[in-house]
Specification:
By secondary structure, the protein is α/β, with parallel strands linked by helices. It folds into 2 domains: 1-29 and 118-220, Rossmann fold (3-Layer(aba) Sandwich); 34-115, Rossmann fold (3-Layer(aba) Sandwich), CATH 3.40.50. 54% of the residues lie in helices and 14% in strands. It contains 9 helices and 8 strands. The chain has helices at 15-26, 33-46, 54-63, 86-96, 99-115, 126-130, 144-157, 164-180, 202-219, and strands spanning 4-8, 30-32, 66-68, 72-74, 77-78, 119-123, 136-141, 193-196. The chain has a 5-stranded parallel beta sheet with strand order 2-6-1-7-8, with helices on both faces. The chain has a 3-stranded antiparallel beta sheet with strand order 3-4-5, covered by helices on one side. The chain is globular and about 50 Å long. It starts with a strand and ends with a helix. The model has no long low-confidence stretch (mean pLDDT 95). The structure holds 2'-deoxycytidine-5'-monophosphate (DC). 2'-deoxycytidine-5'-monophosphate (DC) is lined by residues 11, 33-34, 37-38, 92-93, 96, 123-125, 174, 178.
């Protein structure tokens, strides 16, 4: 699809903030695919199912209805805050490693972007699997320390405990699981533009992505 900007990268690299600002600048919607994996994880936990059980997780992915907009709504219930809680964060890498779960959600992601006439889509496998023909693919990174600092700040802002060392250890654990899994691991697409946001302002990063997208549209 032509008007898709794929933004992939590890947790805490700034994807959500950057994706929202790029979408606003380009007049596109933004799709947070991590929120979809988190919503399915919440449904798995609420059903008392095992995040390591592929069948149970796939059944949950198939049976839930996830509505994404300003809020994340799972089967009619607003779960925007609940999906960011520690239980979901601890289990989401296990749930998202199941190929059958991914298959269901990737189908929803493609349909969503199609229905919205394109989108800025952020996740882990957007440029490699979900939209291999995206107009622009960005692989966003930041140093481990900077990512931990940002996540700790987010946690504190949401009134959750935020010890930087603990956050850094959890990010390292999730990076390892997300990059090491067999199904759609976190990896940069060969044609992705690498962007290191460690020492750059959000505005600067956003401007470079928007400019690159416009440059490509102009020559397309
Ligand atoms: O972006 P996030 O931290 O909210 O994502 C939560 C988890 O979901 C992440 O640890 C891995 C998984 N995920 C995925 O496997 N594929 C995606 N496209 C997006 C997220």
């Amino acid at each position: 699809m032509s008007r898709v900007v794929a933004i992939d990268g590890p947790a805490g690299s700034g994807k959500s903030t950057v994706a929202r600002a790029v979408a606003a600048a380009l007049g596109l919607e933004v799709l947070d695919t991590g929120a979809m994996y988190r919503a399915v994880t919440l449904a798995v936990l609420a059903a008392g199912a095992d995040p390591a059980d592929p069948e149970a997780c796939a059944a949950a992915a198939r049976s839930v209805r996830i509505d994404l907009g300003a809020r994340v709504v799972l089967d009619g219930r607003d779960v925007t805050e609940a999906i960011r809680g520690p239980e979901v964060t601890a289990a989401v890498s296990a749930v998202s490693a199941h190929p059958a779960v991914r298959e269901v959600l990737v189908g929803h992601q493609r349909a969503w972007a199609e229905a919205h006439g394109g989108a800025v889509v952020e996740g882990r496998d957007i440029g490699t699997v979900v939209f291999p023909h995206a107009a622009l693919k960005v692989f966003l990174t930041a140093s481990d320390e900077e990512r931990a600092r940002r996540r700790a700040r987010d946690e504190a802002a949401a009134d959750r405990t935020a010890d930087v060392a603990a956050v850094q250890a959890d990010l390292a654990r999730r990076d390892r699981l997300d990059a090491g899994r067999a199904a759609s691991p976190l990896v940069a697409a060969p044609d992705a533009v690498p962007v290191d946001s460690t020492d750059r302002t959000i505005d600067d990063v956003v401007r470079s992505i928007v400019d690159e997208f416009r440059r490509r549209e102009a020559v397309a």
